[in-house]
Amino acid sequence: MSTYVPLIDLTRGDTLECQHAGAIAVVDTAGRLLAHAGDPQAMTFTRSTLKALQALPFMEADGPAKLGFDQRDIAMLCASHSGEPMHVAQVQHMLDRAGLSYKRLQCGCHVPYYVELGVGPAPAHIDERHHNCSGKHSGFLAYCVQHGLSLEDYLDPAHPLQEAIRRDVARAAGVPPQDLRLGIDGCSAPNYAMPLAGLARAYARLASGAQDGEFGASFAQLADAMVAHPELVSGTGRNDEAFMRAGRGDWVSKVGADGVQAIASRSRGQGIAIKIADGNKTALFAASVAALDQLGWLDERQREELLPWRAEVIANWRGTPVGERKPVFRLQAG
């Protein structure tokens, strides 16, 4: 934990009540560290920020064209979606193209996020398609269908799909495959911890799209899909949708569970990776906006659009302001 520094303070009245520590790395496509707070090499589980990189074997094998996936399907490969009807319908489209039932999905199921957020009532039936990772899993299955691989064990780290993912994730992040630390994600898929700067570099490359010398065509399709359909990547009223819309086509954004966020600028060829040590999402979003502002990525309109995600004023249930949430870090030059 010594790799983390205070990022966000919460005060009640004039007294410090909570402090959220973490680390930030800002990196270009070549892996050069441009700015940081805390240790940019902090080993961090990537969680759902990994999804666009987990799609690389499928993209590199021209899977979308061969199975008839459209741009909306490609966005769903990268999604931590809310399980809204539009998301479930898109997952079903992906499964139909692969010729599979939703019962092949091994992600499990949970109450859709949109219900928890109060966007709408719970559906009469909840199944694996409502899981926030079902788009990623549909892509996993599609790859297996394309290559004639077994479906029953597609989440086994030793499965050819997962071995291909580990290889491509390591290449994208500039990290030796053996240095990726294996863990199992909430959806039962293999996930990897890597240096925070490696995640930032991977996102800088993702955002650079066709300019990338190794994964250019794949990164271009993935980034274009995410930016064109942020509502599919996340959902109504959620942060990745808000961030990418505020970015006006320039930002590629993806949140992960337990306090991880990656944001990259297509025009700058730069990526930001942030980890909040205690996993607090509100602090994560506040730190993300503060980092964007310190880097000079925000104009006045964008500051206004992202004001709710700064969450500066802490109010009680009557709406009375009782404290503040404020950034306490300054990014240091790399």
UniProtKB/TrEMBL annotation:
It comes from the Bacteria. PANTHER family: L-ASPARAGINASE, PUTATIVE (AFU_ORTHOLOGUE AFUA_3G11890)-RELATED. This is Asparaginase. It comes from Caenimonas terrae.
